[in-house]
Each structure stands twice: as structure tokens, then as C-alpha cells.
Amino acid sequence: MSCERRTFSICIPAYNRARYLPSLLDSIFAQGFKNFEVVICEDRSPERNEIATIVQSYVDLFPGVIRYYENKTNLGYDANIRNLVEHAKGQYCFFMGNDDLMCKGALAHVNGLIQRHPNVGFILKSYAVFDHSPDAFSQEIHYFKEEREFNPGRQAIVVCYRRSGVISGYIVNRDDAYACATSQFDGTLYYQMHLTASVLLTKSAVFSPELLVLCRNSEPPDFGNSEKEKNIYTPGCYTTQARIKMVSGALSIIAALKDAQGEDFLEDIKRDYANYFYPFIRDQLFLSPKAYLSLYWGYWKLGFGKYPLFHFYCLGCYLIGVRRFDAITGIVRRYLGHTVQIGVNLR
After folding, report:
1. 3-state helix, strand, coil in the chain (%, to 5)
2. 311 and 188 share a domain?
3. Residue 93 — φ and ψ, nearest 5°?
4. Residue 281 structural domain
5. Segment 279-329, tens digit of pLDDT
6. Based on the number of CB atoms within 10 Å of its own CB, is 67 exposed (0-12), middle (13-18) or buried (19 or more)?
7. Closest Cα partner for 114 from 39, 5, 7?
8. What pTM, to 2 d.p., does this model score?
9. Does residue 244 fall inside a structural domain?
10. Which of 63, 68, 186, 332 has the smallest number of Cβ neighbours within 10 A?
């Protein structure tokens, strides 16, 4: 490999889940497009030694491609994403969750998108979700039927902001992401959404109709270990408090854009959330009526009460239950001929 700057930095925030790391790395090194580096930042997890041993075995197999860093303290999700951007040297950061897989041909496909759209700052991905075997998808998420470019500013931000919550397959221009680095949103679990909004003020977004990543849906979340996350998130689950905090954090990020840039997208983003609110209540439908009403009121206070679809999702889903609503959603997706996002796992 020449000293010319590589196209991609494959960025992996590593925290536990060492058993999945070989499969992830295999899916990356199986790519036909080879102009990439792999950057791994281990966030002081209990499985640090196992992760280091696995990484070293791949360093031996692929010398000069992997750069591995061990954080001195547990930074938490948001700060570690920022840490990876800082260490990345490629033109674009291509993030991968530590238990997910990169689809065959993904890098070549994204490189083609970049070549066809030279002003692209962010790639809006298509992806699939699997529960146990990557050969059996439980969901396939395609936001549009064909490749599309969205103009910088309001159009790109409103389309991409909510849809950038899943970290696997999150692809952003590295230098633009580095330029807007901030610790202001640490603890929101949505630092990448800050990057999305900031980068798309001046750069376009491009949607990829091809599946880029496969996301594992069987692992509980690992948030709640860093100083910024303690007493807010509980490792192993998303509590009611956590769900409200996450949505509130996403809104605080887009609201801050007005303070910094004078651009007000908050109402557009709230409306977009309200129109697709199911992911933010799905794992809370087991709550007692009293507890669920508390969740409902918490979201209402964030400003969603004026949107009819918010009430439809919150009340309708609770009344008919997860299984029936999932079945209805599946019918609607098949009728429309494409799928929509109904999952919000981050790691």
C-alpha cells in the first residue's frame, strides 16, 4: 500500500463482546476493495485482554492495516466515537458495531457512491437485522428504493438525522467530523447524530440502496459504565429513564445547531420522530399502565403531544401489543414494497 491517504478508516468502538470480534474482522478483510485501515479503540472493558489477543492475531495476518488503542479510562459511547474519529486517517470513517458484520462488497459499493457524488459528507445506509444467524434476517431496512442524493442543509438533515442512530454502517467524511468535535453531547448516546447535523450543513448526503451491514439484535446494550453514563443508563437494558433521556438528547443536539449556526431544524426533526415513533416505545410496552403513562407523559413534555401520530403509536401499540403491531407493520412494509426502520440498537 502506498503512502497515499486511504479511502476508509473502519472504526470499531470495542467494549466486551470479544467472541464476535473475529467474525467482524473476517467480514472486513474479506472485502474486495482493499484501500482501508482498521482503527479499534478499546474502552477499558472487562474483556480487554481477550480483545487485545484477538486483535494481535489479525495484526500478524494483516501487518500495517490495523491500529489498536486502549483507552486509559472508560470514555463511554460518545467520547469513544469522537476518539475514533481523532485517530482515523482515512478520507471517510466507516463505523462498525463490535458485534455486527460488514456485507460482501460494501466498501466497493460505497467507494462508487463517493466517486459519483464528490460533495458527499454522509452515506445513509441500508442494513439488515438478524437475531441469531446472519443468514436469516429478521428485518431489512431500505429507506428508499434507489440511490438518491440530498442537498446540504435542511433537506439532507431532516432526511438523515433520525436515521443515523444506528452506528454500524455509519459513514461520514472524516475531516468534517473531526472539525466539529465536542464533548457537549457526551452521555446522549447519539454523538454520531451531532456529526450528521453538523456535516450536512455544507455537504450532501447519499442514500445507498444496497445492504452495507448486518446488525445483531440478540445482545443487550452495554451502556452505563462511564462517568457520563452512570445513573442514567443501566447495562443490559433500556429503562424508561434511558429512553426518555436518549430522545431528549437527540433533540438537544439539533436544538444546539440553532445556537451555533443559526439554523433551526427542531420542529422538522420532532415531526419526523413523531411520524416514526414506534422504535422509542417498542421495548417499553411491557410496562404497567401507570408506568407506561409516565413514559407517555415524559415524551409529551418533550413536545410530541401536538403530533397525532405520536398518540397513535403510544396508545395504539400499547393496546394491541408488540406482536400484533409488528405483524401490521410487516403487512404495511410489504404493501409499500420497501421496509422502514423499526430498530434503534446502537451497539
Report:
1. 45, 20, 35
2. no
3. -90, 125
4. 240-336
5. 999 999 999 999 999 999 999 999 999 999 999 999 999 998 888 877 877
6. middle
7. 7
8. 0.93
9. yes
10. 63
